[in-house]
Amino acid sequence: QVQLVESGGGLVQPGGSLRLSCAASGFTFSGYAMYWYRQAPGKERELVAISSAGGSRNYADSVKGRFTISRDNAKNTVYLQMNSLKPDDTAVYFCYTSLTTRAGTKGYWGQGTQVTVSS
Predict the structure, then answer these.
(1) Residue 89 CB neighbour total at 10 angstroms
(2) How much of the chain exceeds pLDDT 90, in percent?
(3) Average of per-residue pLDDT across 30-52
């Protein structure tokens, strides 16, 4: 059974940092891309960062240079290091992966972790 469990959210002042973690289980973590999304109140969910199985990383323009996605395949965990946080980064952050089996492709979401950037 696939599970994604996020942690590390909280309240931080503008300019501060947080590191989010997403612990994965139930699939071969090293073989799949992992994604971080976020959803702010009243807005659509948006893609923040991607960590491919091959090690490449991609970011939304809004977070480039401030956020870093990384993964530890030995721990089945993907991280999102967030620096220079802004109030606009306030959102619920979700971990996501998409798995392909003989039955087809299915996406899985974590429960989300709240990040609030405020003074």
Answers:
(1) 22
(2) 95
(3) 97
42 token code pair: 């009243």
- Using an 8 Å Cβ cutoff, are 55 and 70 in contact? no
The pair of structure tokens assigned to 85 is 């946080």
Residue with tokens 């721990």: 75
Which of 72, 76, 82, 98 shows the shortest CA–CA distance to 14?
82
How buried is 44 (Cβ within 10 angstroms: 0-12 exposed, 13-18 middle, 19+ buried)?
exposed
Structure tokens belonging to residue 30: 């090293």
**Strand partners of residue 76:** none
83 within 8 A of 74, measured Cβ to Cβ: no
